[in-house]
Specification:
This protein has about 100 residues and is mainly α. It contains four helices and no strands. The longest helix is centred in the middle third of the chain and has 29 residues. The chain is elongated and about 45 Å long.
Length: about 100
Amino acid sequence: MIDDKNDDPLPVVDSVGLTDIDWAAINKVKLAYRKGGKKALSKALDELSSDPVQTIRVLGAFFPIETCEEVRDKMAELGITREDLEELIRKHESPAHDQ
């Protein structure tokens, strides 16, 4: 991990909920950016995009507010409400879901 926040052009702003796999992806993205600039960063993010959930977690670590707003906007565009999400979570967490 890059620890020197003063020299870090791509700092992790929100590390809540990140897994070891997320940290590996974050470090790969940071290294790509440091070695190759925006073009290499774009390529690293494209490679990460094969896992959309991890992509959201990694982008959220760098840009938490912007990522949240983008997800909220996309959900609204698709007609998904907060209540819809809460219902999906309840269904997923219910014991009947595990059977």
